[in-house]
Every structure is written in structure tokens, then in C-alpha cells.
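Input record, target 12 of the design panel.
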């Protein structure tokens, strides 16, 4: 019976140790590895980022540690990770959300740029069509002017012929 009690106590103690808070600003790579959801790559990245300066808060942690967003921060916090002794809370607006907003804005800018290019192409096409129409109108105007001149010449020639016929008829 004593062995069973000791075994249960040992189990509870090891579980409590595993659930003990591990602060991202103070823990070694091995301690970070002990947190469920953190592997060697992430723990190394945390330690490398920490060399640049301690994490101010969870927002700073999420911004600087690649692959950690709100969802993963929640699970890491639930597994015992803290930043400056504090657990992650969902009410904190994260920088990752800001990054996503920036990506959406970038897409909107790209769409606006594409629309502007399309509009510019359409404007150029319209200007080209307008120039062609103007050229055709000018051509038609020139033809009309030539026809007018030709008509005047024909009228003058007809008048001269009529005059000559009249003169010949008098003879």
C-alpha cells in the first residue's frame, strides 16, 4: 500500500513539474523543449530571438517567433509557457493579425494597380479608336470637299459648254 501511495505521489509530482510555468524569457532550450508543442527548432528560434532582447509580451513573442499565431500561443500557454510570467489571453490584439491585415491591404493595392492598368489600357484603346475615327472623319471630309470642288468644276464646265452651245446655235 505504501508503494502505491509513493507511486501516486511521484506521478503527481512529475505531472506538476511538467505543468510548471516555463517562461520564454528565462528557460533554456531543454526547458522550452519540455513544453508540449515546442520542439527543438522552435526552442532554438525562441532562444535566438531572446538574444536580441527579452520578449516584452505575447504580442512581441508572436511577432518575433515564426510559426506562432494566436491559436498556437493559446495551446503553448495552456501547456505552461509564459511570457514575462503571464499566460496568453485572447483579448490581446496580436501583431500577426496586423500582418494579415497588411497582406490584405497589399492584395487590395495590387488589385487597384491592376484595375488602374486595365483602365489605362482601356483609355489608350479608346484614344486609339477616337484617333482612327477622327482620321476617317477627316478623310470623309476631304472626300466631301473634293466632291464639292468637282461639282463646282463640273457646273462651271457645264455652264461653259452651254455657253459654247448657245454661241454655236446663233451662228
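The sequence produced for target 12 reads:
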Amino acid at each position: 500500500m505504501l508503494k502505491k501511495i509513493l507511486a501516486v505521489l511521484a506521478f503527481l509530482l512529475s505531472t506538476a513539474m511538467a505543468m510548471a510555468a516555463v517562461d520564454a524569457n528565462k528557460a533554456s532550450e531543454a526547458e522550452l523543449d519540455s513544453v508540449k508543442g515546442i520542439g527543438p527548432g522552435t526552442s532554438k528560434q525562441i532562444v535566438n530571438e531572446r538574444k536580441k532582447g527579452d520578449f516584452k509580451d505575447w504580442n512581441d513573442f508572436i511577432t518575433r517567433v515564426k510559426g506562432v499565431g494566436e491559436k498556437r500561443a493559446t495551446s503553448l500557454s495552456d501547456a505552461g509557457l509564459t511570457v514575462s510570467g503571464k499566460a496568453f489571453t485572447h483579448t490581446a490584439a496580436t501583431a500577426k493579425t496586423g500582418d494579415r491585415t497588411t497582406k490584405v491591404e497589399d492584395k487590395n493595392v495590387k488589385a487597384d494597380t491592376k484595375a488602374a492598368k486595365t483602365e489605362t489600357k482601356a483609355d489608350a484603346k479608346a484614344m486609339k479608336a477616337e484617333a482612327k475615327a477622327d482620321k476617317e472623319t477627316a478623310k470623309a471630309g476631304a472626300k466631301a470637299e473634293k466632291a464639292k470642288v468637282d461639282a463646282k468644276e463640273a457646273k462651271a464646265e457645264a455652264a461653259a459648254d452651254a455657253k459654247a452651245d448657245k454661241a454655236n446655235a446663233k451662228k
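The two ends are 160 Å apart (CA to CA).
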